[in-house]
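Q: What would this complex look like in 3D?
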Amino acid sequence: MVEKTTTVNLKTGLHARPAALFVQKANQFSSEIFVAKGDKKVNAKSIMGIMSLAVANGAEISISAEGSDAEDAVEALVEIVSKEEL
Amino acid sequence: MANMVTVREVADQFDLEILAGEKGLSRELITSDLYRPGMELAGFFTYYPAERMQMLGRTELTFISGLTEKIRRERLRFLCSEETPCFCITRGQEPPEELVEEAGKRQIPILRSGTSTTRLSSKVTNYLEKRLAPTTTMHGVLVDIYGVGVLITGSSGIGKSETALELVKRGHRLVADDAVEIRQAEENYLVGHAPELIRYLLEIRGLGIINVMTLFGAGAVRDYKRISMVIQLEAWQENRQYDRLGLEEDRIEIINTSIPLLTIPVRPGRNLAVIVEVAAMNFRLKRMGYHAAQTFAQKLNQSLEDPEDFD
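A: Here is my prediction, written as structure tokens for the whole assembly.
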């Protein structure tokens, strides 16, 4: 399993549109991917899950993945949230 | 994940008066058990459960007032241990001076309520049980079908939300889509609800996010529901053997609770909503005492033993 903790730099946080992009990206991978914030952990491939976390700018989240392309998946998703704007 | 509740939250919830130790209001309660010190007041401290909220009612306070000052101070000091979260005086009584002093020194809050110890205890226990219950979040859709809470799971894009939509159309109720927060309310009793932000919402690919309550009405949603069974949808695999009889019952473990699990293969042309609906009905029927597969197997056995009876 690959896991990485990162701070969300997106100015608007994981607002509806960035969340949709994030989920779209996650769906390109076959690995099981999870996003955790605090004590909540949701499936990264589900837009409702991601939005229920209400990830704001500056929040710390941890992205974990399990599967054949786990490393690439975590890398790609960390890249999305570490940008300031999409 | 260990849950905890602060003394301040309990005080706010039950409107308790804070008599001393305001600085200690952030102390944590880690167990839902309460304690009424009795033996301790009589001087027996070998098994003092200090980590619980300590309730002092009429019995305890009357006993304390009958002690000599020196002994009273000594025993009350002992009650104020490092782990003691707080004291609660009931029936609006006055706390013993020595307790106020000793608790104040260690910043242990003393709370007061007007109700009787037993009544307050049961209310506080219920509240703490709820707050301290183990929780988890699962990826899936929770629907109430004929009163049976069915958690539909499966990988992304398999059709969970679409199945839920069809079930709602058929008159069943949506509890949560995509992220289901599950709490173990008591042993073998799991309750699922939706995270506040996405309550009543359903995401359907191609449509986007829809609000089931405004579209279908208040009768189409529920805020929470006990989870009675799990239905796992998975892509049809040619070489996998699927249950053809329904004699065996698979189970899945969610926070120490084992729940019946059905695996349903998805293939074009299979109406999932109907299958899930019937699975829930069949589950109800089994709980009511009729097991179709078992009854059939028994009948078959009988006919194999006495073929003539069935001519």
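A: To summarize the key features: The domain at 5-132 of chain B is CATH 3.40.1390.20 (Udp-n-acetylmuramoylalanyl-d-glutamate--2,6- Diaminopimelate Ligase; Chain: A, domain 1). Residues 248 and 293 of chain B are 9 Å apart (CA to CA).
Q: Very helpful, thank you.
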